[in-house]
Amino acid sequence: xxxxxxxxAVLGAxxxxxxxxxxxxxxxxxxxxxxxxxxxxxxxFFLNAKGQKETLPSIWDSPTKQLSVVVPSYNEExx
Length: 79
Fold this sequence. Notes:
By secondary structure, the chain is mainly alpha-helical. It is built from one helix and two strands, in the order αββ. The chain has one helix spanning about 1-30; strands at about 45, 55. The mean pLDDT is about 85.
């Protein structure tokens, strides 16, 4: 009985692996590039706190801010 259960477990694992490979192949072959997104004119602006119209930055614009992060260490004051 034990060898039969072992064979069924191995067969089940092999079928699961084959299904995963098949799904991966289908997903890879049917994948397409991201579509070109078009922003309408009213989507390019927002109203700031003063009610003035400002342009929203694009993901392709160069960065305008830099960020510095300071991470304190454990018991920093005692060292």
